[in-house]
Amino acid sequence: MNVETSNRLRRLCFKRNVKLIVVKNTLLQKAMQRSGKDFSPLFDTLKGHTSIMIADQGNTPAKLIKEFRKTSPKPILKGAYVEEMTYVGDADLDLLISIKSKNELVADIVALLMSPTRNVISALQGGGQTISGVLKTLSERAA
Question: 123 and 79: one domain?
């Protein structure tokens, strides 16, 4: 990537609250080994230029890369470690985008739990109008 392209990527990362760090492969591998987590599937990807994207939500860097690729062929996803899972290769980019964050999952669960309540309330509200309509019709017939 040339300077202009990398600066555009850095600005986009800054706007999305994603930290972009250029690293040395050997130092990154040593840090991964000492972390206590199993990063071994990613060790083969540590060749050439390597950068790390760190974000609060696991799918944000993947979305950022996908968006940035509309104007530039790079960056290429070498690998990712998201939600205790390892993804290797650029082919997993769409899979990473589809991963929901913890907040999105909580919102989905709350929406599912509230759905029956909304149905009952709307049925009660609709039923009240139906009953009053029936009573009005019956009273008009009687008169």
Answer: no
SS3 44: helix
Q: Distance (Å, rounded) from C-alpha 82 to C-alpha 100?
A: 11
Q: How far apart are CA 96 and CA 113, in angstroms?
A: 27
- Which residue pairs from 133-136 have beta carbons closer than 8 angstroms and sit at least 24 positions apart in sequence? none
Which residues, other chains included, contact 99 with Cβ-Cβ below 8 Å and sequence gap of 6+?
58, 59, 62, 82, 83
Per-residue pLDDT of 29-38, as tens digits, reads 888 888 888 8
Kindly report, residue by residue over 96-109, the tens digit of the pLDDT.
Answer: 777 777 777 788 88
Give residue 112's domain range. Answer: 101-143
